[in-house]
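request received
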Amino acid sequence: MKKQLQSLKRIGFTVGMTAALAASSLAQAEDKLKVGLMLPATGTFAALGTAITNGFKQYVAESGGKLGGREIEYFVVDDESDPAKATENANKLVKRDHVDVLVGTVHSGVALAMAKVAKESNTLFIVPNAGADELTGPLCSPNIFRTSFTNWQPGYAMGQVAAAKKAKNVVTLTWKYAAGLQSVDGFKEAFEKAGGKVVKEMTLPFPNVEFQAYLTEIASIKPDAVYVFFAGAGATKFVKDYVAAGLNKTIPLYAPGFLTDGTLEAMGDAGQGLLTTLHYADGIKNAKNDAFRLNYAKTYKSQPDVYAVQGYDAAQLLAAGLKAVNGDFSKRAEMVKAMEAAKIDSPRGAFTLSKAHNPVQDFYLRKSEGRDNKVLEISAKALADPARGCKM
Amino acid sequence: MDFYSFLIQVLNSVQYGLLLFLVASGLTLVFGIMGIINLAHGAFYMVGAYMAFALSSLTGNLFTAILLGIPLSLVFGAFLEWALFSHLYKRDHLEQVLLTYGLILIFEELRSLLVDDEVHGVAIPDVFSASIALNDTLSYPVYRLVISAVCIVLAIGLYFLIQRTRLGMMIRAGSHDRDMVQSLGININLIYRTVFALGVTLAAFAGMLAAPISSVFPGMGGGVLIISFVIVVIGGIGSVWGALFAALLVGFADTFGKVLLPDFAGAIVYVLMAAVLLWRPEGIFKKG
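response:
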């Protein structure tokens, strides 16, 4: 009994000490702004998570390690791109670490769960990639911002391009999941508005990559063009199969830029000359982009991509808000107003935010050449997502 | 669908089915004969694909890569059997699942450390890079037809090995009664090691052959693992003909499902499996 009491006392002492230590570290951190980075560090999207983190930290470093006069303290959680763990992971940052700002993520399903946590706790939330239309649609909120795109946007831009190229009948093909379906909806809206017709919308279960049956269908329909949404390994396989089936000779392939970003090396010859639309490209000529690329290459010994740009702009957007209130995070309403009004000087070209807090940005028509997606032209100037379902 | 398109879809089905057989054959051997639930089968497929990628960029030729890759896979399989799997035969299935699931994680991590997390392509050998025109818009890549031919040869070879050779006889006997075979003076451990090495090699070979079509990428083993189990279960565990028949069945169901019932394309293979299991719980070609 005595022994038990002693050990109980010991535990009590330890707990007390830990609490005291925690309190003192809290006091120390008070002047620092707590930024929670919830991004994938493992799994398929690990490289994207790294690029976003690099971009974010690059802007902070360029601003002398401070945003709006506040030093930054990072809290990092690997979200594993797993929607099932998303709420718990977001809560680790919001409830355990008490972060001021939540930044993330790549996977749309995870980002949707993060948005719910952010809404409930009224945490400032910046999305540096996930394209789910809902985030700046039905879920839009004063504390939710995005520095990337909606799935609708590059699709809509490509719909205009396809119509301008005089295509009349188009077949679409995508995985049957939100990103693909929303992208096809965007394409269809622009394309049919311009007088074209989507004659068949085909989907296959995610992440199935056996395309032969669909290629045979496309060959028998003989449309003027095909619009697809694929990314990563699926994109690589699709393009190779499409070319091996000889379809590229008679039926042009159109897609949002995710088809050819990071996949051109794997596609080899099959990937050359593909037309895609995206809000970033290789060979954009502006002083900001030149400086950004140079700095990034120096710091990280690799070339930046669209994900690095989105991370960089997430930090810029946060800085715009903090500057307006001189780093006083308690003036949230003022800060949000400043962020809404900010003009972000992005490497992709300057952009502003829509009422629903999504970038109103230019979309580039790009052509793949070697390992680059070279700019052909700006195909859609200041394209804004319609933010359907947003009541703000 | 006109008749000509229908014929092309039949060709697609057969070709996809044969490719599935190639992947599933190794699993049905290891599962059926050795009684091991090998979740790492897909990981071996991935190892094969990455070997094809690494060796063909080293040697500049996919054939050389495959010729080097096969003995490497055999050694690799024999080593794994000696080091790990040989301790599992008398154990519970749950422990096998734990070990093989652990292997998936280890192989994925090694892949990430040794190569990277990007998608890579493997070039189709120049001899087979042509396509045959089927009509004015569609052509068929020769390489896919070559894969189909290889799969047919392999199916016949496996059947011959298991049904018509002395080794095959010992393997079949060993799958029925391990202890009895051993008491007859046959080195059962060596036989199991051979079968396991063969299973790993079949999976790796499938990965090597498929690499030019599918590309190599993180997690590529996961997709083939599930469909392989479906085929093994439909075909009857341990039956090579069963696996071939089931793979073709799945090939047809998947291809025509995508064309005729696009909204249910994701479920059709599993509905097929459920139907077969209701009709014949042991699989279509159950072992006698």
